[in-house]
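Aim 2 progress update. The chain analyzed this quarter is reproduced below.
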Amino acid sequence: MKKKSRNAGYEDFDFIGEDAVLDLNQYASKPKKPQRDWLRLAVNIVAPIAIVCSLFFILFAPTLLGTKVFGDDFVEKEGMFVPIQGTEGEEVKYFVISGVHEDENLTDVILVACFDIRACKMTLLQIPRDLWVGDEEDIWYPNPANKANAIYSNQQEGEYSPLALNRKINSHFGLPVDHYVVLTIPAFRDIVDAVGGVWVDVEETLYCTPYLTIPRGHQHFNGEIAEYFVRLRNYPQGDLDRVNVQRQFYIGFAKQMMDMSFWDIQSAFDKVHEDVKSDMTYNDFLKYIQKAKELNPEDIEIYTVPGEPFEDGEISFYSIHKQEYVDLINAKFLPWSDKITVDDIKIIERSNEYENAARDGKSFKDK
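Predicted structure tokens:
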């Protein structure tokens, strides 16, 4: 098949050819050196363009760079809620990345990314969707609303859902939050397609539907198949298996992004930015993408909240192992901050019958 030109749809304009002669001397009162004539022509053309571009940058660049690049214009009423604690300086930044249903009531994916800009490293924390995050009185009344995946929709009146999740990460997980990114399922599919699909090393054959089986091995996913892959729930160990499968996708996606140029990444996200919610400005987006392009696979590590699955009534939950969690956070997620203690973690440990059942984290290079 003939490859379509990047300029398809545009007219071709013919400028001065190699055999054409441009005689400027006919307009002069006396002969001039050709070199000076060409120089004067260049100055006369370039100078006005440079002036116009400079004026445009001075007048409009601050506005454009300071404008949110994603489709998010919700503003909470100032003073109504606890301020979200972020970081100071540019040594490290924290991002909460969540994937939500079309109705935006539940999250299928919650990731906290610690981007250590100074050391050029990134560490990802997977928060299982079934993680129990209820209060003391909730122990007596088993309710799916006490799962981490319901935080997004359990906001207070007037509170913005992404910020409600950020506050929970602050108060219950002991982590700062600087920015958030929220993807709906359609946006997730579109992003995967926009980057050209993702290659994933599937560890076990997955039977997603009666009509869709994902075989074991190195597989290429489009957006639709990727959605089935990360949202599948029927696993023997519930959330433990689910977060491991999702981890396989994150690694493939990150490697795909590393192989793309900065301009290709920007072009891909330009296609979907209106379907993504984030508090980042255009300047933020460009800055972090440029920094992330410097990462190598061995610079990225991924971990899961240490813990184990448990049953309460007929509801499946996941319990944190608090001491193991604190040890992990202090070692991997707080490179330039004060360390935390068990008392700083407001999540109640519901079960600790086994050693940490979550798989140990590794760098993307090890996968």
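Helices lie at 34-65, 161-173, 185-194, 223-231, 239-259, 262-270, 282-292, 322-332. Residues 25-65 form one domain. These observations will guide the mutagenesis experiments scheduled for the next reporting period.
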